[in-house]
Amino acid sequence: MAKKRIKLEKRDDRREFSIIFHELWTESLGHIGGSGALLYCFLKYLADHEVPEPYSAEWEQAVCLPLGMSRDESHAAWAKLQESGLILLEKNSYVLCEPRPSVGASPTSESKMLMVEVEARFGRPLSMTEIELLGDLCRVYDETLVRLAAAVAVEAGALSLPYIRQVLLNWKAKGITSAAQAEADRLGFQEKKAKRNARTGSRGSDPAPTPTALAPSKSKYDEAEIILRRIRKSAGDEVRHGN
Asked: What is the pTM of this model?
């Protein structure tokens, strides 16, 4: 069955029209989403003009209202733009960066499957920083080892890529290089933990061994209050840089 398609043509070519590079759609859209793309285009339009801070009361009137976004939606979009490297904090101002084509080899289908698997285990999408770190780990370690390290992180309640990296480093220090050795080490640790719990009469699971342990996120992305704290932290850093 033939697909129905429409043709779009430009009637006029006005110089005032904002030109957005193709990379915004081809490289960034998958992460920043429609709200992020809309916010980026609007900020591009306002470039070289002062805009309210995202956490200020004026932000909602100047940005959210024209774009038809809620305050929380705009904060989530801003956070995604920062994670994608499209907004940077330099000295005492924010810099709106141009989207760039990705550099290096395209991820393999196995790497994409691993990313999806880790996201399913964590119960949330990975940020761009986490995706890059996961790619780095896959270039250094066998993907089967990375997958097992992710399982260890989930069992420990430490849902973070730095924890996965630490597990891999611990295995490397022990001379563990194969999936069979890693699985044996994992099962051995579980057995020791079960015996320890039996001796102490503990009924619950051990807490995560590092302060970086995170509880599974119930939302599809960061909760609004977490994003707001992140933006406020950036603003605080900006004030300190300006002093």
From this structure: 0.44
